[in-house]
Specification:
The structure is a single chain. The protein starts with a helix and ends with a helix. The longest helix has 33 residues, at 182-214. It contains 6 helices and no strands. The chain has one domain. Helices cover 75% and strands 0% of the residues. The relative contact order is 0.18. The protein is globular, with a radius of gyration of 19 Å. Helix 3 (68-99) runs antiparallel to helix 4, helix 3 runs parallel beside helix 5 and helix 4 (108-128) packs antiparallel against helix 5. It is mostly helical and 218 residues long.
């Protein structure tokens, strides 16, 4: 039970973020009360990034020793990352509809995120198209490494090179984490940790299920 302390911490932090995310005072800005979505939408993306980084690391580790358990960790990390990514896009579209008047607008950062998601969907399709277990793991690991770098390019690099982006909020600097009101920071940062820990929790459950199906012993 002691080794599961981080799971309980995840639940406590998420509960804290959900409750106080609805009752904390938010600044009077152009996006008004919709700013509360920051605790959920951004948290899901934090969780997604943590999972994609984990998948990248374990793909590298797999290519060193070809340990099947590490390939399982890599693929399940990406699975959970995709789940968080799509939830983040969904909550972002709801937020965008209130902020910009449309669920999706022409913006380099939004389009880059969409392309990044399709790159990782292609990773799952690629794995599903290869029958040989070892070949699937090797090809998948190589693709996952390149996918991570492409994700960084499309989500972080190209939007900056493309010029000004209205995301996360043109003329609304308070939505940037470093510019948050102090009353929001005490909710925002614990909630982000909670979302990241939830991602690892779900990932561990999926890993155990997959290993039971494949009858792989640690």
């Amino acid at each position: 039970m002691q080794k599961d302390w981080w799971k309980y911490l995840s639940g406590v932090l998420l509960l804290y973020g959900i409750i106080f995310g609805f009752i904390v005072d938010v600044p009077d800005t152009m996006i008004q009360q919709t700013m509360r979505n920051l605790f959920f939408h951004v948290g899901m993306w934090f969780g997604m990034f943590a999972m994609l980084i984990t998948g990248f690391i374990y793909s590298l580790r797999y290519l060193r020793k070809f340990n099947e358990s590490e390939d399982i960790i890599a693929v399940e990390a990406v699975n959970v990352g995709l789940m968080f990514g799509f939830l983040g896009i969904f909550t972002g579209m709801i937020w965008a509809n209130f902020t910009w008047g449309a669920p999706w607008v022409k913006d380099p950062k939004l389009n880059g995120a969409a392309v990044g998601m399709f790159i990782y969907l292609a990773y799952m399709i690629l794995r599903g198209s290869i029958d040989d277990v070892h070949k699937r793991a090797k090809v998948g690991a190589v693709y996952n490494i390149f996918a991570f770098f492409l994700w960084i390019v499309f989500v972080l690099v190209l939007p900056k090179l493309a010029g000004e982006s209205i995301h996360p909020g043109k003329d609304s600097p308070p939505v940037m984490p470093m510019n948050l009101d102090p009353s929001m920071r005490i909710v925002f940062y614990p909630a982000m940790v909670g979302w990241i820990l939830l991602g690892f929790w779900i990932m561990n459950v999926r890993i155990r299920i997959r290993k039971l199906r494949l009858k792989i012993e640690d």
